[in-house]
Each structure stands twice: as C-alpha cells, then as structure tokens.
C-alpha cells in the first residue's frame, strides 16, 4: 500500500477525530515504547528533560520513550560509541562521537548497527541494518546485512534495535500507526492510560475496540469460572478432564515419531516422568521399565521421549519471567535428563538448531544484572498469544502432530494457570481496570507543525527532503497536540 493510499485510509478511519486527538494517540504510543533494562547513552544525550520551548528546522524526528533526536542531515547512524565504555575509568576523557544515536554501552548493539538515510532517487527515507543482532520495524524482523535491501520508512514506523524502541516521524506525512502495532502495544497502553484513554476519545475507542481488551475480559471471566468450579463439588469425575482443564479440552495424543512423543506429567524441574520409554536394544543398553525420574543417574541409558523443542519450552517455562540463556537451557536439560548429562556434546548442536529454526522461539535482551554474553530466549509473542487465544476460546481439544511447544504450553497452563513472559511481551493475566501511571510533568515531546516546507538551495531541490519547523513542547499530554 502506497503512502498516499495509507494516508487516505487512515484519514477516513479517523476522520471524525480532531488533529489534536490524532496527535494525542501518537504521543501516547511514544510514551509507552520499550527501552533497554539498562540505561542507554541516547537517553542522556537527547533527553526530553533537556529540551526547551523552541523551534527546530529538521527533516524528521526519531523519538524514544524519554528522548528525541531531530534529523538535520541526510544520513543518521545508530550504534554504540565504544569510547563510552571507558568513561568510568577516565571521567575527564573527551568522547569522540562516531555515532549519532548511541544505544550503548550494551554490546547487543553493534558499533555501527544501522543507518537511516534519504534516497535521492526514490525520494524516501530508508533504514539499513548492519549489526548481526538485526532489528525490527513495526515489530517484524527486517533484512540484515550491507547487501540486504533497505527498509523504506514511513511516518509512524516503530523501530526496535537491541530492545530500544523508537518512532520515526516525518512532518510532511500523516503519522500512521498500523493496527498491528497498536495491538502489540495494547497491554502497555491499557495499563498506562486505562480504558478511559486519559480522556482522549480516539485513544479510548482504540483501547475499547482492541482484541487484547476483549481477550483480557474473557480470560478474567474464565478465571472466575475456574474459581467457582474449584469450590463446586463434582458429581462425577467426567466433569473435568485428565489435565484438570476447566474448558473441558483434552489432548488427544497421536502416534508420533520417537522424538515427538511427550510426557503427560509436570514440567517443572525434577518433576518429569515417562510412562512409555523408547524401545532400547538390549544388546546395546540395559532395558529399564517405566523409569520414574529421568534425571537419576540410573536412567542414563533411557533416551527421553521429549523432542528438543519440548525440552527447550520446558526450560523457558521453568523461569519466573519466561526467558533463559542458552547456557541455562543446556543446564536445565542436563539436570533433568541424565541421558544427555552422560552423552557427548553433539546434542547441544541440535538445541541450537531448534532455537534458530523454530519460529516458536525468539531472542530477547538479558535482564538487568544478568551475567554472561549473548541474549536470552523466550516463547515468541505470536505463538504465546495464539495459544492464549485458543485457550480462552476452548479450541484446544486436539493438538496437531509435531506441536511440541503448544502441548507443553497447555500442560503448563493446566498446572500453573499462567504462562510466564518477559515484561516486554506480557500478554497474560492482568487486572482489566489498570491504574494510570503518572508521568513527570517535565517529560517533553516535540510536535510537528504543519507549515509550508522550506526547500534547501540545491540543484537537487525536487528530490531533496525539506526541513520543516518543529516546536518543542514543555510537557507531555496525550489529550492534545502538545507532546
């Protein structure tokens, strides 16, 4: 869809709302954008608290939750100024700023991770990713590498690099935030502004009409029904299935390959059991009937029936926040399955391949203070939300063959009543009427002012972007045009 068509659709959809209401929606989204668990340099370099009421001529702006960068040249670099890492050791040192938007010092961001530049031929702004950890635009992965095609940016695109989210805004375009992005941010919008939308009619209607709010209400109703069910004597055992699922759903186990068979017992560490072990050649390994605990050394010759995807899911669900490092996944599997504890290290390659190729798993930045290199792993937001939707709708009567992750999620949900997840992707049980979070009155946001473009004096005037005046407001308000 072209920019013009998208603007027409957006204007038609929200034509009954004022310009201030639309700007208030953009402001509200900007205020709930995610940030790294550790402080990043850009929050200090371009903090909104440093802004004063003035007018800035800029091609565009890039705004995070508590910072704003004004684009005043045709190429902006994003990455990490490595010199910043030695500031503590040399506080008086002068730092060379090689990067315009510094997302350091966390090494999840490469030294030159990305660049936003204006394409003179197409007349559009583009994002090129160089860092090996990649990036997302509108919560979807984009191509990575110097030879990969750049991603065209429109006003309202949300960029995520290393867990730091920022919104790209052009003054000459209508800022369009896709419905997909609004749905993704809905948990934060609801918890921050409540169902009233901070008295902004557009924000209020967006929240009230969201799928997330409907699912939350259905989930709350289901929770209350489960509580009533627990206090109601059962007339027969057939009223609850073998998993204790109040929806009446039953997992129908199908005949699968050995690697896909799953246990129907608990999924917490040291609580696994298997009723049907793989057939083992007695000439090679001793036969053990119905091992009660596969973590015991005596069961070292019994290959677990769980697939690698199942064991990875178990490891992720065993953590309080639903994220775990690769090293801890290895440790979880070794601690709970003696077969792998006493095996060669080749199985770890299979674990890495499953993490990389299975769309149910995705990377997430480590928690603050967590030791070790690399990133954590979690259940992808899409898989997790799809499971919760089916759980609430009672559509888990049969799980297809090979759905190891979904089966483990259902076992966990049946036993513990929730699915853990990092704070950045929480979509599980919350109070529907969330309290509004107060923000400091000094938190500032820039506002685009609709004025006549001032073209630069250049031979490429027809293809060059125009710098437009932008007013820097002194407070944040999602109910009007000031930000």
Automatic annotation (TrEMBL):
Keyword annotations of the record: DNA-binding, Nucleus, Transcription, Transcription regulation
InterPro entries found in the cross-reference section: FHA_dom (IPR000253), Fork_head_dom (IPR001766), SMAD_FHA_dom_sf (IPR008984), TF_fork_head_CS_1 (IPR018122), TF_fork_head_CS_2 (IPR030456), WH-like_DNA-bd_sf (IPR036388), WH_DNA-bd_sf (IPR036390)
Keyword Glycosyltransferase listed: no
Compositional bias ranges of the Low complexity kind: 448-461
Places the protein is found: Nucleus
Residue ranges annotated for the Fork-head domain, each copy included: 303-401
Chain residues forming the annotated DNA-binding region: 303-401
Domain FHA: 76-142
UniProt region (Disordered), positions on chain: 435-464
Protein name, entry field: FKH1-like protein
Name of the gene this protein is made from: U6500I00480
């Amino acid at each position: 869809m072209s920019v013009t068509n998208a603007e027409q659709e957006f204007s038609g959809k929200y034509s009954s709302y004022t310009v201030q209401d639309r700007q208030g929606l953009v402001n509200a989204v900007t205020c709930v954008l995610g940030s790294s668990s550790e402080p990043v340099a850009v929050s200090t370099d371009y903090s909104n608290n440093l802004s004063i009421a003035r007018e800035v001529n800029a091609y565009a702006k890039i705004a995070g939750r508590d910072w704003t960068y004004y684009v005043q040249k045709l190429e902006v670099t994003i990455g990490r100024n490595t010199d910043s890492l030695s500031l503590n050791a040399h506080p008086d040192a002068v730092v060379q700023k090689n990067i315009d938007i510094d997302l350091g010092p966390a090494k999840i961001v490469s030294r030159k991770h990305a660049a936003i530049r204006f394409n003179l031929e197409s007349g559009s702004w583009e994002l090129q990713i160089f860092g090996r950890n990649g990036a997302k635009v509108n919560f979807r992965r984009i191509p990575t590498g110097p030879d990969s095609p750049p991603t065209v940016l429109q006003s309202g695109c949300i960029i995520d690099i290393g867990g730091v989210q920022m919104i790209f805004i052009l003054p000459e375009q209508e800022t369009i935030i896709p419905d997909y992005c609004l749905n993704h941010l809905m948990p934060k919008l609801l918890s921050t502004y409540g169902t009233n939308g901070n008295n902004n009619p557009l924000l209020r209607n967006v929240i009230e009409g969201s799928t997330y709010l409907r699912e939350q209400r259905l989930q709350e109703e289901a929770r209350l029904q489960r509580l009533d069910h627990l206090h109601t004597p059962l007339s027969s055992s057939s009223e609850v299935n073998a998993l204790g699922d109040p929806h009446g759903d039953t997992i129908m186990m199908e005949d699968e390959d050995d690697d896909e068979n799953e246990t129907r017992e608990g999924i917490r560490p040291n609580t696994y059991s298997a009723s049907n072990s793989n057939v083992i050649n007695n000439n090679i390994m001793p036969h053990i009937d119905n091992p009660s605990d596969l973590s015991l050394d005596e069961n070292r010759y019994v290959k677990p029936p769980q697939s690698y995807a199942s064991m990875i899911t178990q490891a992720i669900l065993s953590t309080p926040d639903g994220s775990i490092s690769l090293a801890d996944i290895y440790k979880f599997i070794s601690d709970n399955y003696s077969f792998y504890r006493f095996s060669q290290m080749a199985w770890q390659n299979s674990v890495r391949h499953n993490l990389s190729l299975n769309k149910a798993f995705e990377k997430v930045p480590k928690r603050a203070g967590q030791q070790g290199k690399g990133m954590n792993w979690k259940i992808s937001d899409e898989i997790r939300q799809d499971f919760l939707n089916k759980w609430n709708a009672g559509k888990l009567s049969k799980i297809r063959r090979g759905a190891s992750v979904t089966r483990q999620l259902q076992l966990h949900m049946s036993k513990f009543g929730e699915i853990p997840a990092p704070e950045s992707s929480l979509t599980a049980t919350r109070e529907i009427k969330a309290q509004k979070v107060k923000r400091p009155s000094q938190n500032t946001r820039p506002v685009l002012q609709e004025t006549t473009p001032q073209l630069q004096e250049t031979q490429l005037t027809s293809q060059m972007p125009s710098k437009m005046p932008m007013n820097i407001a002194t407070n944040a308000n999602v109910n009007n045009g000031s930000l």
